[in-house]
Amino acid sequence: VPVDEIFVGLEPVALAQHPADPNRVFVVDRLSDALVVVDLERGVVVATVQVGDEPQGLALAAGKVFVTTH
Fold first, then answer.
1. Residue 70 pairs with which residues in a beta bridge?
2. CB neighbour burial string for 24-45, b if at least 16 within 10 angstroms, e if fewer
3. CA 56 from chain center: how many Å?
4. Do 15 and 9 form a contact (C-beta atoms < 8 A)?
């Protein structure tokens, strides 16, 4: 049973939690070609960044977010 929903795009394909902030997650949305940053505590999208054609995945390393595209 869902507790809450936060719209992050039409086709989210990957998700990663910020290692230092468990209330911050990054979601890759393939159809909008975007990386979406979500604040779980507030339940809102705090940023949307265009990343290139059809992003497929993401990784967090060295304080940065890396996104793979098609």
1. none
2. bbbbbbbebbbbbbbeeeeeee
3. 11
4. no
How many Cβ atoms sit within 10 Å of the Cβ of residue 13?
15
| Angstrom distances, CA of residue 47 to CA of 1, 7, 24, 27 | 27, 12, 11, 11
User: How is residue 55 written in tokens?
Assistant: 């992003």
Q: Could you tell me the sign of the dihedral formed by the alpha carbons of 38, 43, 45, 46, in that order?
A: negative
Summarised one tens digit per residue, pLDDT across range 20-63 is: 999 999 999 999 999 999 999 999 999 999 999 999 999 999 98
Tell whether pTM > 0.85.
yes
Q: How far apart are CA 8 and CA 28, in angstroms?
A: 9
